[in-house]
Amino acid sequence: MFQSLATSVRRKLMLVVLATTFVALLISAIAMAVYETRNYHSEWIDDLSTQAELLARASVPALAFDDERAARENLSLLRVRPDMRAAAIYLPDGRLFASWTDGRDEPHEFPDAPGEPGHEIRGNEGLLHHRIVEGPEVLGTLYLRARYGLLERLTHFVGILGTVMVASLLAALLLSAWLQRAITRPIIAVTQAAHRVMDTRDFSLRVHRTTRDELGYLVDAFNAMLAEVGRRSEALEASNRSLQHEMQERRAAEDALRLADRRKDEFLATLAHELRNPLAPLRNALQILAVAGDDEAVAREARQMMERQLRQMVRLVDDLLDVSRITTGKLAIRREPAELQSIVRNAVEQVGPFVTARRHALSVQLPAEPVIVQADATRLAQVFSNLLHNAAKYTDPGGRIRLQAAVEESAVVVRVGDTGIGLSPEALSQIFEMFAQVDQSLERVQAGLGVGLTLARRLVELHGGTISAHSAGLGRGSEFVVRLPLAPSVQAVSPHAVHVPRAGTSRLRILLADDNVDFASSFALLLRSAGHEVRVVHDGAAALAMAAEFRPQVAILDIGLPAMNGYELARRIREQTETADTLLIAVTGWGQDKDRRQAREAGFDHHLVKPVEPGQIEAILESGNLARQQPLA
Fold first, then answer.
1. With bands split at pLDDT 50, 70 and 90, how would you rate the model's confidence at 416?
2. Which has the closest alpha carbon to 188: 213, 210, 212?
3. What is the DSSP code string of 415-449?
4. Contact residues for 254 (Cβ-Cβ < 8 A; gap 6+)
5. Residue 9: per-residue pLDDT
6. Do 319 and 452 contact (CB within 8 A), yes or no?
7. What percent of the chain has pLDDT over 70?
8. How far apart (Å, rounded) are the C-alpha atoms in residues 365 and 378?
9. Is 623 helix (H, G, I), strand (E, B) or coil?
């Protein structure tokens, strides 16, 4: 292709040079031919007129003395002129006086009478009539006939011009060949580079400049164009890559949003289902208590049923609160040295009734030596109780659950395994995501909100550890592995990590302030049944007045009280000398970290979130003889 292009450019360049040269030569030849024609004609006339003038002067004596012989001798002198054909002298009356011819074979006919002075061209011959005068007298007329060789002259001239033109065209051809290399080489190089760029998309190619003329400028402009196109191409490709990446991220975000929306809908449906499930047994148990009468066995069974369902509702509400903390990024822990064995035992105690109800065999293997971790004992116990609760829930009744803890290098590894329904590979990849459900069918035996494992993972990460799930497949059980770093050094174990046994408690004066009359009355009944003296009020102002009068050892206060909120009430109680050492316990539905911080700043010793287990209050009352040095629970 490039060869044909080169041939085309060279042929065109050659044709341009040759055509230009030929046209220039042709115009020059025509001009010179016209000039030569006019010059020859002028010279011929001048020469013939001069000759006629000389003969006319030489013939004056012959005419004056009527000497015909002398006249012929004068005319015969023309024989030295090869182009002269004939000559004659006519008398004034028109008679032929003397004549001369060049002696050629063809006869020559003289005109009968002379013509007017002047010249005339007839083909290849010319005629001239010239007056012979002597002073004012006309003695006769001279007639000359000569060869007019313009055609021969032009033929010879054209031959010379043809030779010159051929030589000039040959020189132009050689010059064009040299110009072709100088002109077509950069053009062909630019063309080749352009085609290579089109084929390979390689904008780094450059054409070498060999001249400093316009072609060199063309090469520089082409190289600059390649550089600019390369930069723009790279920018366009980078923009395309960025756009593709953004599109992928957008599609991923849309998929995540759709998945989150679907899981949200599933979560709300599951939440409604899970909240309705305990309500039905609670309502039934209330009806049973209403009709049981003196049947203590039936009443006890109803109370146990209500307790179980209430615990389930409390667990659901706690999960919802923790979900709120996770989504807002406010989930926090208070880490301090704690004994792992105590934390695990607390978790086992929490899920013990549920494991027993499911008739599972639970085995716990802990290190013989105390293992100290830097942890929030309550939150870490929540992680293990969550894992054990899930193991019991997703294992058919009569299954086996195991918890094993061992120290590996600088970490403690806790494994919770079961013989339950197991996990598919798809479920393993999303089991720790928010609202993820292992079984989403309507026929599932056990359900949940799908937040427990998400919460567990977040809590473990806050402790600087990791949690992972393993399963051999559906129906083959599962295992969750928690890895936590050991504490840098062995320190005293936090009192919150140790379960406080329910021992006997001395009779205490307790002030209970809550605007929920049913809660206050029922809780006061429980405290009185434990032997304590209890005073109940339903607003903050009445609580402050009662505190000054009653001087309670313990004050259980709600936060959202009318007339005076719980924070202000706590500060006012601390300001009074007679109640400055009162143990203040906040029992409220506000359970965010900022709520705990505000309670601590207001002077509360403990912060409990409703619903409160009676055992929690008992543990506080039994611990440390009401020592206020303990941090908020």
1. very high
2. 210
3. EEEESSS---HHHHHHTTSTT--S--STT-S----
4. none
5. 63
6. yes
7. 81
8. 20
9. coil
Kindly report the length of the chain: 633
Tell me the C-alpha distance between 540 and 543, whole Å: 5
Give pLDDT, residue 629: 36
**What's the pLDDT tens digit per position in 114-163?**
888 988 888 888 899 999 988 888 889 999 988 887 788 788 888 888 88
Query: Please, what's the largest Cα pairwise distance for the chain?
Result: 200
Instruction: Name which of 92-106, 204-218, 442-456 the model is least confident about.
Output: 442-456
The alpha carbons of the chain give a radius of gyration, in whole angstroms, of 65
Report the C-alpha gap between 447 and 442 in whole angstroms. 10
Decide the pairing of beta strands 583-588 and 606-609.
parallel
Q: Show the tokens assigned to 171.
A: 């020189």
Q: Identify the burial level of 32 via C-beta atoms within 10 angstroms of its C-beta, where 0-12 means exposed, 13-18 middle and 19 or more buried.
A: middle
Q: How far is CA 520 from the centre of its chain?
A: 62
DSSP-derived letter for residue 46 is H
For 617, half-sphere exposure in the C-beta direction (CA atoms, 13 angstrom radius) is 24
Beta bridge partners of 609: 588
Q: Which amino acid is at 173?
A: L
| CB neighbour list of residue 12: distance below 8 Å, 6 or more residues apart | none
**Residue pair 414/376 in contact by the 8 Å Cβ criterion:** no
**pLDDT: is 345 or 592 the higher one?**
345
Question: Please, which contacts does 197-200 make with residues 24 or more away whose CB atoms are closer than 8 Å?
Answer: 197/226
Q: At what angle do helices 296-327 and 214-292 cross, to 10 degrees?
A: 160
Nearest to 19 by CA among 163, 181, 165, 184: 165
Any long-range contacts for 182-186 (C-beta under 8 Å, 24+ apart)? 182/211, 182/215, 183/9, 183/13, 183/215, 184/6, 184/9, 184/10, 184/13, 185/210, 186/210, 186/211, 186/215, 186/216, 186/218, 186/219
Indicate the residue type of 366: L
Give the H or E element holding residue 127.
strand 125-134
Distances in Å between the Cα of 193 and the Cα atoms of 196, 199, 202 are: 5, 10, 10
Q: What is the distance between the alpha carbons of residues 309 and 316, in angstroms, rounded to a whole number?
A: 11
| 427's tokens | 């479920």
Supply 50's token pair.
């001069």
- Spatial neighbors of 397 by CB under 8 A, at least 6 apart, are 358, 359, 360
